[in-house]
Amino acid sequence: MALPPSGDTIAAIATAPGEGAIGVVRVAGPDAFAVADAVFRPRRGPPPSEREAGRIATGRVVRDGEVLDDAVLLPFRAPHSYTGQDAVELQTHGGPAVLRAVLDACLAAGARPAGPGEFTLRAYLAGKLDLVQAESVLAVVEARSDRARRSATDGLTERLSRELGDLQEALTAAYGDVTAVLDYPEEGVELRDPKPRVRTVRERIAALLATADAAALTRRGARLAILGRPNAGKSSLLNALLGYDRSIVSDVPGTTRDYLEAPLDLRGVPVTAIDTAGVRESPDAVEAVGVERALELAGHADLVLCLWDVGRPLAAEDHALWARLPAARTVPVASKSDRTAAWDPSAPGGDLPAALPVSAASGDGLDALVDTVAERLLGAAAGEELWVTSDRHVAVLRRVDDALARALEAPDDLMAMDLQDALGELATITGRGDVAEATLEHVFANFCVGK
Ligand SMILES: Nc1nc2c(ncn2[C@@H]2O[C@H](COP(=O)(O)OP(=O)(O)OP(=O)(O)O)[C@@H](O)[C@H]2O)c(=O)[nH]1
Ligand SMILES: [Mg+2]
Questions:
Q1: pLDDT digits (tens, 9 = 90+) for 50-106
Q2: Is the N or C terminus of the chain more exposed, i.e. has fewer CB atoms within 10 Å?
Q3: pLDDT at position 45, please?
Q4: Whether 100 contacts 112, CB under 8 Å
């Protein structure tokens, strides 16, 4: 397989399959305007090829005298277009049959069907985007959460490009240091130890990789289980987090007998919150099953909120529950903090750690709780704005780091080779330096047609 040619004219449906109010067929390449002249009849004024760039025209798409649909034409002139080439976009009604017919008309007029990602590949080849930015086009399109969207947007992608460019420069300098040692072993040139530079680069890569875990969690969403004795205020807390009454609240202990789930967005992280049955030794068989299920849910959750009612003395059940929860993934909460405290949340006593005071009734402490949950879920990445979201980038950064780990262990001559490996890998992300065609094929194959 080779990269497709970029000097001809391509066309594709750019909007998602299915019915939509508007659909777009995109045409790009040197003959884009010839194609537009063949398929588009403006309501008034000159044909597309004689129109100014950026001035939309209304009209109809025709083929062999047949009107296919009303349309709006957007003309772009090289180099001021996405691909850097002449281009037109035809907006029509969004039905699949209409779009197919419009695309067919463009193909009959001389365009070739575009392959996956071919528009973005052209943008990359024209120097409009670097590879990190090209891949982020895909990430933006695929972003499901607001946090993922933000980390994929231009500003941050540019920063990622720059950051990786800096790493590339630092490694190139380290490589220079090593080869100087090799090339001029006896001469009096001032030699620098390349290792500190390499160590700094490794630290930065470790920080970037930590953000990748957070990005993955943000993509798949996190599970947050709420546990506590009956009446601890679990359902009330769920409702307070949601901002509406999802779960039944009552002063009868054992109100929630099975678990229930509700989606919420905590500081940009999509979270499924799970309200569970109060944990106690229950004579009721149904409730006992609910309790077992609650503990099982806690075992599989990304994070657990363990509620202790601050208005009631702590009981053996509270200690027993704490002992059965995964401590590293549990946030202790002193619930109903608006009530007169029967114990001190900052020092509950026994084996119990300090708990965060929260009142579902008054809302006090809720913000702090949400911050804590987001921080615990995202780890070190919570404070980082720059996230690595692409699986390919993660894999490449791991390989760069492996090569650098080897470089630090190796004698000078082998170190040069390891640094070269690392630089070669980095270039496959940034697209600066030597990028194998295979890398480009791989990157753009993940795109859908029309992007
Ligand atoms: N003062 C005060 N009362 C609360 C607060 N949260 C819950 N309650 C009360 O505590 C009682 C139990 O609340 P729930 O939310 O049903 O408790 P639960 O843990 O879900 O109980 P079960 O489902 O029975 O295990 C209800 O009477 C609530 O009104 C709070 O923050 N402050
Ligand atoms: Mg409940």
A1: 999 989 999 999 999 999 999 999 999 999 999 999 999 999 998 889 999 999 999
A2: N
A3: 93
A4: no
The continuous run of DSSP H or E covering 388 comes out as: none
Q: Could you give the 3-state DSSP secondary structure of residue 308?
A: strand
Residues flanking ion ligand 2, Cβ below 5 Å: 234-235, 255-256
pTM above threshold 0.85: no
Domains of the chain, with CATH numbers? 10-129 (3.30.1360.120), 141-217+390-431 (1.20.120.430), 228-383 (3.40.50.300)
The pLDDT tens digits of the residues spanning 162-205 come to 888 899 889 988 888 887 766 666 665 566 788 999 999 999 99
Ligand 1 pocket check for 291: Cβ under 6 Å:
no
Is 142 buried (19+), middle (13-18) or exposed (0-12) by CB count in 10 A?
middle
Å from CA of 77 to ligand 2 middle: 62
Of the candidates 151, 68, 107, the residue with the CA atom closest to the CA atom of residue 382: 151
Say if strands 112-113 and 260-266 run parallel, antiparallel, or are unpaired. unpaired
Residue 253 alpha carbon, nearest atom of ligand 1: 24
